[in-house]
Amino acid sequence: MNNFLEDEFGLTVVDSKKLDGYDNANFLITTSEKQYIFKTYPYSDFLFDIIKAENDTLLFLADNFHSSIPKPIAFKNKKLQKKISSENQLKVYRLLSFLEGNFLGDCTPSREIFQSLGCFIAELDKQLQIYTNYTIQSRQWEWDLQYFHLNRKYINDISNSKNRNIVLYFFNQFEEHVRPLYPELRKQIIHNDANEWNILIENNKVSGIIDFGDLAHSFLVNELAIVITYACYDKDNPLEWATILLKAYHEKLALEEKEIKILYYLIAARLCTSVCNSAHAKKVSADNTYASISEQSAWKMLYTWLTINPRHAENEFRKAAGMSIIENKSLQYSINKRHTHISSILSMSYRTPIHMEKAAFQYMYDTSGNTFLDAYNNIPHVGHCHPKVVRAGQLQMSKLNTNTRYLYDELAAYAEKLLSYFPSSLNKVFFVNSGSAASDLAIRLAKSHTGFKHIMVMESGYHGNTQTSIDISDYKFNNAKGEGQKEIIIKTTLPNTYSGKYTADIPNAGTLYGKDAVLEIETCQHPISAFITEPIVGCAGQIPLADGYLKEVYPAIRAQGGVCISDEVQTGFGRLGDYFWGYEAQNVTPDMVILGKPIANGHPMGAVVCTEEIAKSFEKGVEFFSSFGGNPVSCAIASAVLEVIEEEKLQKNAKMVGDYYMLLLKDLMKKYKCIGDVRGSGLFIGIEIVKDSKTLPHTELANHIKNEMRNRNILISTDGRYDNVLKTKPPLCFSKENAEKVVGAIDNILSSFYNN
Question: What pTM value is reported for the model?
């Protein structure tokens, strides 16, 4: 190489050092006077043309960026690139001048640097506005954001399923928000790779930019998206830094409103492009460390970006550009609009309701630009707007959706998949459209099977909003506005080991509660058709049934001819961590299981799983028909939910995060006497708020905490007989960091409460 450089360029090489490179070899060449960059590439006709285009671009920019960009140096034949046969392989050689300076990635970030960077890139783009190059204009590849969709082929190279689905989510957002604007966006040649290792800094200002190998004829705003992405890597507050850069850019080269509108999604797209290509590079060559040099930074920023409300980002960008922010209708207007046609009996959470607009995984975004950490909604079981679930619904909806009188594969396939999670005795399933409908149907099945009409229910239990489900829900019929207990209802005492008859310090408390219930069964004047309860009674305040309780009760119910129903609408599908179904914690098997809420991640669906004997008894009566219970779309979505639970190991996550969450809360309980109890399992937790260290409920404080958490953009709720139990049951993608945030906020609220 040294001889070649001396022969072609007259350089006497003092030292040469190989540098990192993505798909080419780079060498830092040192002579007694100067330094140079010598680059070699494996030859192809296309690449040769691209290198020529790059050199032509550098020559075009040379007058205005003389010392700020590399200068191509000609070979003896006056050409700026040369095809050489070396080591039995055709290669392309070129020589560039060397630019002094420190890489942006090695510099301490400052407002001055970011302002300089914004101005520099804007000036570069202004110069390129009048430049044309047909080779660059014909180029199409993954690193050009207008061809973002080409990166989809690398999705499966991302080994971690959770990471993969974050990327898929942003692919969906890009298609929705960016692609429709393609015809309206300004296009020109851009650098397209202004990353932290291509920007040079001297004296807190940008001194140069290198590596024009990714030149693209693309949307102008993509340039800004790219430079923001890499400049804001590893920043705890990337949006704040982004606005500094954008403001400086805009002052030099004005942005259009439509460009600012999509900038949030373009930044996410660049991050996704980076992690997709890193994953692919590792698959192809595991030892290619250069290809994934920024991978961890990209993942960190991508997860941080997810926590930022897109509307908030757009408004911050608009403010930085001197544009007016997008104003919403007032909250009161939205409330009045709701109540124009919707009865106010459909209540809303919190003293100040929240006008939600979008959601992603464990985050919800309101119309005011706030991001809420969702520690409350258990219905989006695998996460809000999970891309796999969304896609399953979209695909099936575009193919077939019909009623259940027709044969279609999705019904039988999902039934088989769902029943594989149950013991062999539970081998029949009826699909309906909600958990309430499932409760209603379960009681109908029980009465049909047993011939009895009386139902034993749990104190404070809740099973839905149909007339039958209200009749069996003490939480509703025993309400001050309720209709009271029907004659056919037998209510049994909640086996509560915190404030009940038998507390946790009494050995075999669950067994004792069970024996009391058995006595009620044996002395009942009427045969009991069914006993229904939740394994953890949610509306009672997240109270788990005392250990051993169902072991006593189930045999007694069956002995007098009844059936046992487990309501798993809230506790099922791995939420409890240790168990996929709540009844498993009691080491029993019910005769029927009610499913709803998370079964299809919020899509309207419910189910009753039962024994073959119960199903056959039901067949003797009037026909059962649910037009859309188990329709193809519902089945496809529900099937995707099960797949996500397995792929992302969400039951394991519920166990790991839930245990950590409980530990943090129990530590907090030692600090504040108002926390009387912390209970639950996995990501289904209740925190009882009391007036002393015993059991006197403190409803006012519980509601104060709930609403203060809302003011801190964290969603929890309250429940229980006295509405004094904080309940948290987040999507199963909830993280340890999320748990820390929730507990830290409660700690802060209680500290302020007691110190004021």
Answer: 0.93
